[in-house]
Amino acid sequence: MTAAPRPLPVPDELSAPYWEAAARHVLSIARCSRCESYVIPPGQACPHCHATDPMFAFEPVSGQGKVRSWTVMRQSFLPGFAEEVPFVLVDVELAEQDELRLIGRLLDGPDAALHVGDRVTVAFEDVAPGVSVPAFVLGSDA
């Protein structure tokens, strides 16, 4: 029996630039053109300045950050992840802005020695032809 395929992102008009950059292994985050704050994910309004016409522009960021928290996933709740458990999801605060958080898999594995505040850097999982998902690895150049 073949394992179910891993779910793939379904970009919409607001998120398409993020996924296009990820496919090139570039972490690009929406930035409000009004207040210049980064936003993950972008919505119809900026959560920082409350502009209803934020004209988000996606900008490459360093991909450097620190671990705020994590969890070890020991059960697959979505088809396509059963073969990958256990794995670690990390909540990362990106270096570009306080409280700019992104959740992703830690590619170092479930046995990695992990602590709050550990430095991580973005890496990418190629999950299908032309589709990559941001993830993280321990350590950083910063």
From TrEMBL:
Residues 19-53 form the ChsH2 rubredoxin-like zinc ribbon domain. SUPFAM superfamilies: Nucleic acid-binding proteins (SSF50249). InterPro entries: ChsH2_C, ChsH2_Znr, NA-bd_OB-fold, Thioester_dehydratase-like. It comes from the Bacteria. Residues 60-125 form the ChsH2 C-terminal OB-fold domain. This is OB-fold domain-containing protein. It comes from Actinomadura vinacea.
